[in-house]
Amino acid sequence: MSNPVIQVKGLSKDYVMGTTVVHALREVDLTINEGEFVAIMGPSGSGKSTFMNMIGCLDRPTAGQYWLNQKEVSGLTDSELARVRNKLIGFVFQTFNLLPRTSALKNVELPLMYAGVKDRTENAKQALGRVGLEQRMHHRPNELSGGQQQRVAIARAIVNDPVMILGDEPTGNLDSRTGEEIMALFQELNRAGKTVIIVTHEDDIAHHCKRIIHFRDGRVKSDEVVENPIEARATLEHMPIENGDLEKN
Amino acid sequence: MNLGDSFDSALRSIGSNKLRSLLTMLGVVIGVGSVIAMIGIGEGTKKKSLAQLEVMGSNRITVMPNWGRGHGMSVGDASTLRPADVDRLRAQVPAIKYITGVVSSRFSGQSTVKFGSNAARTSINGVEPSAQFIENANKMFAGSWFTDMDNELLERKAVLGYAVYQELFDSENAIGATIKIGNQNFEVSGVVDYKGGSGFMNADDQVYIPLKTAQNRLLGSKDRLNYIELQGVDSTIMVELQREVEDVLSATRKDATGEDLFRVMNQADTLAAIQTQSQILSMLLAGIASVSLLVGGIGIMNIMLVSVTERTREIGLRKALGAQRGTILTQFLLESVVMCVLGGVIGILLGSVAVQFVAALLQVPSVVNVAAVIWAFAFSSIVGVVFGLYPAVRASNLLPIEALRYE
Which structural domain, as residue segments, surrounds residue B106? Predict the structure, then answer.
């Protein structure tokens, strides 16, 4: 039953910096199946962010092929890629990237709007409900804590029911308890069957995932299964409540 | 994403930085506002000039002695118009409906008219009764005009313009009252209804007395006229009428070099002059309009470029979430168009208020030109599109990954 959500073959990306060519990715082969929870790690310059951009269809590879949800996307036009990002991928960023001065609800509606969905409010409310922020849907980002903002971002990522969620350092701007709460949310979504891929440089965060892929010098250095992933829910019970905001609503 | 969403998001973005949006719009506001105001005032002035022509009488031709080239005004001079000229015109030009010779105190300084202790400085005009039709002064407030018989009998009768009447009688009954013109007594026979004249040669600030009375008793020049005025049977034959009048007078009134000793002024010419003048004014205004809207447009473009740079990350995010290039283009284009149109609307409102204000100050009718409003509106949206296009294209061409990583 292992349907590959991501399949890349010989994926390379070169950047031209002035006169020198930087090989950010060198012929990477990788498959990630449906329902996996993968952490991508590596020092800066290892190519992990570039890889993230490639599988997120935010950038195009110099060479190689990429099948997303078993359809080749390497040769698609800008407009087709935009549609792929909208329908198949849910992004969660380190800096949340919510639209300022715009309510949580409107932020979550954004992907639905670009998808051309007419009745957006109900779907967006449901997504906010799944991240436990139904009561705060009319708040603006500046009226929400960091953790709450990231949960709005996650609601926005899942609202179009994508095949995978891509998190780029999703806990990087959060304190450890809030980070743990976000990881709990990701684990919950993963348990419900969603494929989740996050980029992180924190070992601790990575060990919440089921699989860790290390990048180095543009290549996959190691690819291992995590035997006993940390249960974020369990960890939270032993953590002191200071900034945690799950309880705040 | 439909147009409504784009519109909504444009309004949201304009509203999120109110001061800046307002300052940006200011260029368009001032541009459109001043155009509306200036065109309104120009139209008002034109309307006033035309109205003044109307109260002075339409279809009217005036024959003046030719004073150019050093022809003096001394009695006996060949250029002097005489009653005989009127008789000849009357006899030889059938297209003349009304004609009168005029002697007027206007050419010897204003005269004072007195009633009791009230005095008014005004123009005294000796005319035949037909002048009431030529000068459009036959609608009476009270009483009636003197008759041809009064003229022949050198009666001392006077018809007052409304302004003179008000000054002397202050709305009291004037008919039959005795007024003093110079040192002679005149009986008021009529008061002309208010005509709405103003300024130089105010049609309401006139006193009419019989021509022969004026020549023999008051202005003392029995065989001399200051000018002749006449009205044609039809407004469509004014040009022909003018030529016929010129032909008749040319026969006798020429100097040694063959130069005419008179000038004929047709009201149609004056009308055409006013029209040309207002056309030049309109073109000038259109020029100012384009310049100010251009400046406003550049202001908008400048701010939109800044805004695109500032919101690079937002654009990246929108693209990551699936916004198409066209969607981003529409969003930014709509933003500049909405800003321009909003500025245009504010400008139209302010301009219309300015028109009322300045019109009241200049005592001209206030005219808010509908065509100008529509043009200003259309023009400001065009400015929005033209100057918003480049920033919008730039925004839509941003690569999602670079936009997202932009610091």
Answer: 67-260
